[in-house]
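Thread: Newbie trying to understand structure tokens

Hi all, I'm a second-year student working on a class project, and my supervisor (Dr. K.) asked me to get a predicted structure for one chain before our next meeting. I've only ever worked with sequences, so writing a 3D structure as a token string is new to me. If someone could post the tokens and maybe explain what I'm looking at, I'd be very grateful. Here's the chain:
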Amino acid sequence: MDRQARYVVVMGVSGSGKTEIARRVATETNCPWLDADDHHPANNVEHMRRGQPLNDEMRWPWLEAVSRAAQAKADQCPPGNTANTIFIACSALKRSYRDVLGRNLDPVTFVFLDGTRDVIKSRLERRVGHFMPSALLDSQLADLETPGPDENCVTVFVDAPIDAVVSTVITRLKNCENGSSSFVKDNITGKTVCQGEER
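---
Reply by user tm_fold:
Sure, no problem. This is what the structure looks like when written as tokens:
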């Protein structure tokens, strides 16, 4: 199948704003999106409702389900349109999780939503109707492996109004777009570097 699409995974711990930011960026760029939380099996959801963190064995099938859902979105994109981007809100906390997504979704760029524990905890405590309790934040922060300089990723800090965060994500992705299928990389200093650009 000639599927012309690229993938952007909006990642970070619970409460960093992944779902809202991925949804709004997708809406403003007229692209499809999906929430990885919608693809957790029921036993994972109940596990987290009880305040118990997921282990790796629970996450592997979930990551595969998220990958299949994103591929299905890509299959629905108009053929031959290289501008199609699928936005995915997914924690992707560990390098091994991102490696799974990277193998299944090619090309993929990660947008890491970073922020202080206090800011993220306050957002979690105000959130209504979500299965992830704020008590699990520390376990998520413990699992978080910050993307390295060799990963296709930009970091955006969320200690700002959501409109500003959305605008920053869109601007940084657009500024680094170089006409190829993969378009963003951060170097060690945090300055955005486009693939193919001199370092």
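A couple of things are worth pointing out once you decode it. The beta strands are 6-11, 33-35, 85-89, 108-114, 153-157, 185-186, 192-193. The first strand starts at residue 6 and ends at 11. Feel free to ask follow-ups in this thread.
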